[in-house]
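ok so i was messing around last nite and threw this chain in just to see what happens. nothing serious, just curious
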Amino acid sequence: MAQQTIPNDAQPASAEMPPAMAEVKSQKVNDLLAEMNRMPLFMTSLDETDGQGGENLALEALKAMAYEGTRAEIAENFRQQGNECARAKQWTDAKEFYDKAIAALKGPQSDPDPNAKGSDVIPVELNEEEEAKKEMVIEEAVYINRALCNLEKKNYRSCIQDCAATLRINPSNIKAFYRSGTACLALDKLQEAAWACDRGLNLDAANAPLKALKTKIDARKLHIASVEKVRRERLEKAASERATLKLALKSRNILTRSTDKAPELEDATVKLENTMDPSSTLTFPVIILYPVNSQSDFIKAFSEKEKLDQHLDYIFPLPWDEQHEYTVDNVEAYMETSAGGLIKVGKKMSLGKVLGSGKPEVVDGLVTISVVPKDKAAGWIEEFKKRRGKTT
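result:
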């Protein structure tokens, strides 16, 4: 018998679908998802309406259940939901449930409806003392659990506040001491952290988390003390070095002056070869100006024992000196004096002797020397005097 084939556009016969399934089959995927989302057990997002702009009765009934009962019952319901989220490490959601639990405990007590009648109505009388005890137990649990959420979310101050609220209810709550101590440690509030840890250990000396926390606090204290010691020693050394440098300059009769417009010299500075020995060799940052040509050179460390010609010897020839005016023998050097005038600097005189004459100044930690060609020196000096005359 020849084998029968089914055409591509034909479908094999099948039993008819039930009417409800046929209706679902005919819906578009998006419509189906939207409909499922309206069923509380299938929700992936919160739809507050029935899809037509009205109320979602199923959702409203579910939400209302969370607020049925006494304060303790409502708060306990939110606490349990918060605990479920906390076990899943969903700290933000857990905290929100704990917030609602606390709000419920602070809200009005739900009393039976005085107008309710009928055989289905069961009269309920609340024992206020028993309810207060229940509420206190729940409140303590909620505060300490919310403290954990805040600790995990690094809301350390909120964690400490929740622990304080817990301890006002139960001064023997070990978790409150541990979590507040941990939060204080994170904030580097070591005194408070140690206090919380010690109080907890007074209640339970064998508590492993508290003992581990105490070890961390002690280690942090040692680290901070070590850092502070190094900082203090550094400051003391810097102050001693400044005093030694000041003594070295004074003993050499070198004048110094500071202004509010000090140039940026990076790490170039006036310093002693041995920072703690005022008799050791001084070095200075020196800027050599070529005022006739508006050029300059910077020498980071010019020893007091060195002479100007030693540096000019390797600086010259200057790349921009097309006229070859700048040679060691063909230039003169000048420095401004503290009185506002000029002194000629001997190229073969050590910098220490020049500065020690008591006439020039080291301004803002920088020595300035002007170098000009001999045949232009007189004209430059005249211009300098004119400028100085205008400013005095």
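not much to say yet. The longest helix spans residues 208-251.
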